[in-house]
């Protein structure tokens, strides 16, 4: 299969963050498979990271063309989310302190405010 002109890039043909369509991803997979050059050489020439190619290749091998469709990015973990176990402990502690503070405040009368002054 002859190399399509569309993919004869020097590596500067795509801006960072641009996405390939599923058909472009498929064409790149076929280009790499049909090339006599090594995977590394072909990917370097078109400016595609090996990790990205192998991610596409694995999804294509498992799912076919639907595996090459865009997917919504998913956060693996929210950096500032408090784990449920910790959140539950904090809630329990807050409830405990609230109950004991109420008991403590009932046992001691509050000082009379008429003696307070603002100077």
Textual characterization of the structure:
This protein is an all-alpha fold and 119 residues long. The protein is 50% helix and 0% strand. It has helices at 22-34, 39-46, 50-63, 84-107. The longest helix has 24 residues, at 84-107. It is rod-shaped and about 90 Å long. The chain starts with 21 loop residues before the first helix and ends in a 12-residue tail after the last helix.
- Low-confidence parts, pLDDT < 50 over ≥5 residues? 1-12
Mind telling me the C-alpha Rg?
A: 31 Å
**Main sheet characteristics:** none
Given the helix and strand composition, which structural class is it?
A: mainly alpha
Strand content bin: under 5%
Number of helices, counting only DSSP H or I runs of 4 residues or more: 4
In short:
With 119 residues, the chain is mostly helical. 50% of the residues lie in helices and 0% in strands. It has a domain at 5-68.
Layout of secondary structure:
Layout: H1 22-34, H2 39-46, H3 50-63, H4 84-107
Helix pairs in contact: 1-3
Q: Which key phrases capture this entry?
A:
single chain; 119 residues; mainly alpha; 4 helices; 50% helix; rod-shaped; disordered N terminus
